[in-house]
């Protein structure tokens, strides 16, 4: 399907083991997940027409795209400062990206249709057993796609980067795919009062780091220690990327 960011996924049903806790995911019975048809059909069209505007207004500087595999499944794990992050990662990434986005963005049919068309899939980052989101992530990766995640689970909004949730590590271990850390700097809301502050052009830097290849797992998705260790490794890599001088 033209413009679809996950070729062959429309309407496909996959199974995923239930996640039993916040740090591990041993099998406990399969759950079927249906991937939305026409997912992401608008993303690359929108990028073709608007990327220049995002680059100009945000004075966007992109580093490390050589670390992104040209083909094959990969997870991009980024810090999350603001709503700017999603479109800017799409602009910065040379490949189409399927995103897990907070379910609040899909609050009505119009917004749900828009974010699905842009490649988003609703997820509750604090549910702990969101098997629909896990199934979606596995399906994207099994199809050789790029899965974009914000492991903080919410926007930091100018605060220090928060703890990372284990979903990215679990998916990487479960699917056996690399994680490319992504550090985003400069997308937080401008300081000051009044509407005029939104005319201020930020300086945004997006840096992709070297892929983190998960070690072979003891089981299909690794145990508690493996998930926790990989989660901390991903967070440390993202933190180093955000700490680089602009």
3D architecture notes:
- With 246 residues, the chain is an alpha/beta fold.
- It has a single domain, classed as Glycerol-3-phosphate (1)-acyltransferase, CATH 3.40.1130.
- The protein is 30% helix and 17% strand.
- The protein contains 6 helices and 9 strands.
- It has helices at residues 43-57, 85-92, 109-117, 131-142, 167-175, 224-243, and strands spanning 13-17, 30-34, 61-63, 74-78, 98-102, 120-123, 146-149, 179-185, 205-208.
- The strands form 2 sheets. The protein has a 7-stranded mixed sheet, with helices on both faces. A two-stranded antiparallel ribbon has the order 1-2.
- Strand 5 (98-102), helix 3 and strand 6 (120-123) form a beta-alpha-beta unit.
- Helix 1 crosses helix 2 (85-92) and helix 5 crosses helix 6 (224-243).
- The chain starts with 12 loop residues before the first strand and ends with a helix.
- Residues 1-31 have low confidence and may be disordered.
């Amino acid at each position: 399907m033209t413009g679809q960011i996950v070729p062959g996924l429309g309407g496909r049903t996959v199974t995923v083991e239930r996640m039993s806790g916040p740090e591990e995911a041993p099998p406990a019975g399969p759950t079927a997940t249906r991937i939305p048809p026409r997912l992401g059909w608008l993303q690359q069209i929108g990028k073709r027409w608007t990327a220049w505007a995002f680059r100009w207004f945000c004075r966007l500087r992109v580093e490390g795209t050589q670390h992104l595999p040209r083909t094959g499944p990969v997870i991009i794990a980024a810090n999350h400062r603001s709503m700017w992050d999603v479109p800017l990662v799409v602009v910065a990434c040379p490949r189409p990206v399927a995103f897990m986005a907070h379910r609040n963005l899909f609050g009505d049919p119009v917004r749900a249709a828009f974010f699905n068309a842009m490649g988003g899939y609703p997820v509750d980052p604090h549910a702990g057993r969101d098997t629909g989101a896990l199934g979606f992530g596995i399906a994207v990766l099994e199809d050789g796609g790029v899965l974009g995640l914000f492991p903080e689970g919410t926007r930091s909004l100018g605060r220090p980067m928060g703890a990372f949730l284990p979903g990215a590590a679990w998916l990487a271990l479960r699917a056996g795919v690399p994680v490319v850390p992504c550090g985003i700097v400069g997308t937080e809301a401008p300081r000051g009062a009044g509407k005029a502050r939104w005319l201020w052009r930020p300086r945004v830097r997006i840096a992709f780091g070297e892929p983190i290849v998960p070690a072979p797992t003891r089981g299909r998705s690794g145990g508690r220690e493996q998930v926790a260790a990989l989660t901390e490794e991903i967070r440390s890599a993202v933190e180093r990327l955000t700490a680089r001088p602009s």
